Here is the input.
Amino acid sequence: MTTVILLVFGAIIGSFLNVVGLRFNSGLSLGGRSFCPHCGKHLKWYELVPVLSFFVLKGKCFKCQSKISWQYPLIEILTALIFLSIYNLQYTIYNKIFLILAFCIYIVVLIYDLRHKIIPDRLVYSLIILSIVYRLLFGGTLLDWLAGPILFVFFGLVWLISRGRAMGFGDAKLVLSIGLLLGAAHGFSAIILGFWIGAGFGLLLILLLRGSKKITMKSEIPFGPFLILGAWLALIFNLDLLHVLSF
Ligand SMILES: [Zn+2]
Here is the structure.
């Protein structure tokens, strides 16, 4: 029963995070009713049920039949899974509340980065502050404190040397927060995993779009979403890749 409640609650929050991610910095308020971006029709309650509406309406607007982005159900499902998986960790309830809150902000970053290829300062600074508070409250080894700054310096150097081509400075701030929040073992694993998922995704994209001129090696794929997925997986699977890889 708890599982069902967590999944439903997570999907509802996910549907809210979709709206936050899309309206952030757009001048639109969060309070306004949801509407179809194509025909402007206000959505009825049965068009707003997380995950289900998308599939019942076959991914189309009820009125104008325009396609609705896959982003909506995917983010709702992802949020539901994040809620359930973090809740099931063997941590105190306070740890879990903090982590779930942080991941809600990470999801907004993920949506925004996918769309605009930039990570808003307001969001990433909130995450850095939240992560420092988390470390202060729950403690950690010296290396847990240093993981974030080490990753920040590494990403900052790559940004500097590649003159922003390999990755944005926003990614450096993002890994600072991930390292601080997750500590050494999970933090470093998150970044290694992020690289792997990103590389796998890049290869897949090249294979799928081979021949077409839609994409080149230089096509900009935002890195933030992969880092965030890596952070989630490293946390819930209790990974320590740095340890595994070095011994
Ligand atoms: Zn419409």
In short: Residues 36, 38-39, 41, 61, 63-64, 66 surround zinc ion (CB under 6 Å).
